[in-house]
Q: What sequence folds into this?
C-alpha cells in the first residue's frame, strides 16, 4: 500500500464519546485505544474496511467512504422509484456473486420471494440497527438478510454480530406490533457444485483443495465435504472437465461473457480493449460502480471469488478473443480473506507470466495487489496500464486463433 494512501475509514474525534464500542468489536484489532485518555484511532494498515465499527458506533463518529448510513438509505429510496417493491434483500458478497442468483438461495430454503430490491454488501455485519428501522419506516415491509454461515464469514465476526442485531430488532418490532416475519435471516454459504457425471477421478481437486474439503474415495469419484468448503474456486481451476465449479463463476459462462464483450468493445472505437478480473474483496468501487475506475476506457470488469480462482486460461483466452490487455486485481497475502492455499495461486501466476512471455504477450497483462482501504489507488494503476496499452499495437486475432477458441 502506498504511503500516499487516502484512508477511507476515519474517526471524528470531535464526535467520539470514548465509549470503546468500536475498539471492543473490531474483528481485526485495527482500532487502538489510549489507556490513559481512552481516545481511539484506526490503524489503517490493519483495517479490512468491513464497516462493523461504523455500524456499531452509537454517535456516528466513524466516517466511511463505502456503504455509509446515508448512502445506504439513498440507495433504497432510489431503488424503490425504479422497482416499487416492499421487500429488501441484504446480500453479502461471499454468498452472492455479482449475478445475484438469490432466487435459488430462497428456493433452497423454502422461501418465496418474487419481487425485491437487492442490496449487496461486503458484509452483513455493517448494517446498523437504525438502518433497519429507517427502511421499514420508508415503506419497506419485509427485510431478508442473506448471511454467510458463521464459520464462513469473510470478516470473522460479521455474521454473528448482524444476527444479534437483527434478533434484537425483531424483538423490538414485535413489541411494536410488526409481523414476526418482518425480518428474516437466511444463512447460506456458496459452495463448489459437483457434477459426478463429468468427473474422471483424476483427484486433482483433492490435491489442490487448501481446506481439505474434498476427499478421495477408493474406486469412486471424490466426495465434497460441504461443511468445510468455502467456495474459493481452487478446485474448479484445476478440474480438466469442469466437473466441479463455483456457482456464478462457471468456466464456460465466464468465457461466453467476455468473448461477447470483446467484439462489442473493439467495435466501439479505436481505444484499447481492457478486461479486468477483480477479487470480490480487493476493491469495492470497481465492482459496484465500474465507471468510477474505468470511465472513458473500453473496459469490462469480471468478479472472481478469490485470487485462487484467477484462471490463467481466461487471461490468455481473453487476449485471443481480442482484448488488448488483461488485469488481475487481488488482495495482498496480508489481506486475503481465504488465505489458505495462496501459494497455489502464486504458482499459477508464475506459470501464467512465463507462458505470456513465451507468447510475447507479457506486456499486455498486469497483476495488482490492492485494498479497498485506499481511495483511488486502483484508479491510478488502471490509468497507468491503459496508457501503456495505448502505445502498444492493438491485438490482431487470426482466423486460426478464433477457430481455436
A:
Amino acid at each position: 500500500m502506498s504511503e500516499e494512501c487516502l484512508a477511507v475509514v476515519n474517526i471524528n474525534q470531535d464526535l467520539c464519546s470514548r465509549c470503546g464500542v468500536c475498539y471492543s468489536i473490531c474483528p481485526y484489532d485495527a482500532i487502538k485505544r489510549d489507556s490513559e485518555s481512552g481516545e481511539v484511532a484506526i490503524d489503517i494498515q490493519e483495517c479490512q474496511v468491513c464497516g462493523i465499527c461504523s455500524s456499531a458506533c452509537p454517535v456516528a463518529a466513524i466516517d466511511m467512504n463505502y456503504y455509509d448510513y446515508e448512502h445506504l438509505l439513498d440507495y433504497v429510496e432510489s431503488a424503490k422509484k425504479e422497482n416499487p417493491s416492499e421487500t429488501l434483500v441484504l446480500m453479502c458478497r461471499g454468498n452472492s456473486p455479482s449475478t445475484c442468483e438469490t432466487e435459488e438461495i430462497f428456493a433452497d430454503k423454502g422461501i418465496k420471494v418474487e419481487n425485491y430490491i437487492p442490496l449487496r454488501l461486503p458484509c452483513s455485519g455493517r448494517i446498523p440497527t437504525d438502518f433497519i428501522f429507517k427502511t421499514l419506516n420508508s415503506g419497506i415491509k419485509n427485510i431478508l438478510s442473506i448471511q454467510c454461515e458463521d464459520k464462513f464469514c469473510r470478516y470473522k465476526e460479521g455474521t454473528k454480530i448482524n444476527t444479534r442485531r437483527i434478533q434484537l430488532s425483531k424483538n423490538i418490532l414485535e413489541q411494536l406490533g410488526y409481523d414476526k416475519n418482518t425480518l428474516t435471516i437466511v444463512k447460506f454459504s456458496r459452495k463448489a457444485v459437483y457434477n459426478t457425471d463429468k468427473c474422471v477421478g483424476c483427484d486433482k481437486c483433492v490435491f489442490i483443495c487448501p481446506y481439505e474439503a474434498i476427499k478421495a474415495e477408493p474406486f469412486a469419484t471424490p466426495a465434497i465435504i460441504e461443511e468445510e468448503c468455502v467456495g474459493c474456486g481452487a478446485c474448479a481451476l484445476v478440474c480438466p472437465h469442469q466437473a466441479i465449479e463455483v456457482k456464478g463463476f462457471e468456466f464456460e459462462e465466464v468465457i461466453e461473457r467476455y468473448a461477447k464483450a470483446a467484439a462489442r468493445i473493439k467495435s466501439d472505437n479505436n481505444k484499447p480493449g481492457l478486461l479486468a478480473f477483480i477479487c470480490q474483496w480487493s476493491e469495492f468501487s470497481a465492482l459496484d460502480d465500474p465507471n468510477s475506475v474505468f470511465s472513458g476506457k473500453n473496459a469490462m470488469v469480471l468478479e472472481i471469488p478469490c485470487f485462487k480462482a484467477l484462471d490463467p486460461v481466461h487471461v490468455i483466452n481473453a487476449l485471443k478473443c481480442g482484448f488488448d490487455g488483461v488485469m488481475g486485481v487481488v488482495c495482498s497475502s496480508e489481506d486475503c480473506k481465504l488465505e489458505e492455499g495462496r501459494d497455489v495461486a502464486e504458482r499459477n501466476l508464475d506459470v501464467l507470466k512465463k507462458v505470456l512471455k513465451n507468447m510475447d504477450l507479457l506486456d499486455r497483462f498486469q497483476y495488482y495487489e490492492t485494498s479497498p482501504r485506499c481511495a483511488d489507488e486502483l484508479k491510478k494503476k488502471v490509468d497507468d496500464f491503459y496508457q501503456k496499452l495505448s502505445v502498444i499495437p492493438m491485438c490482431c486475432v487470426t482466423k486460426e486463433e478464433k477457430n481455436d477458441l
Remarks:
- Confidence is low (pLDDT under 50) at residues 397-405.
- The domain at 194-246 is CATH 3.30.70.20 (Alpha-Beta Plaits).
